[in-house]
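Quick one:
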Amino acid sequence: MLLPRRPVPELRVPTLAHGDFDLAAMVAAPRQFTLISFYRGLHCPVCLKYLRDLEALIPEYERRGTEVIAISSDVRERAQAMASKVGSNLRFGYSLPLAVAREWGLYISSSRGHSSINIEEPPLFSEPGVFLVRPDGTLYYGAVQTMPFARPLFSELLQAIDFAVAKDYPARGEYDGPV
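Output:
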């Protein structure tokens, strides 16, 4: 289990238009956070809407010193097809190893054939998760889902970033002692 204020697992994936993404070796570290949105893949219509919402807010995240990336276990061609549907402001990572997805606490699902939009699901893929990571590589916020539904709203995460920065609010949920 990932714990706030502790280092997150390694995360290195190729991207469609920005070279390799390596969370630990970001040349221009964000002032505040890196927002990582793990999505299910091209087959997911909920992901498409969710990523379009995120893409529209990229300037607001950048204004708040937050780098943004969307990542899936899809191969390059499927990631490119999703990016074409979403828009050009969002950085897309692809070929996320499922072992790495599991290290991040993501749930793994197996294919049920074709999705509701008649796109074949990969044999295995990760379910969604959203994380805010500090420039020092520690977890600030994390949310994972077992299904594509009921995800955190990106507009509300913007408000949370504003509050966290203004109040110097610490990451919560870090206690791992006896209960």
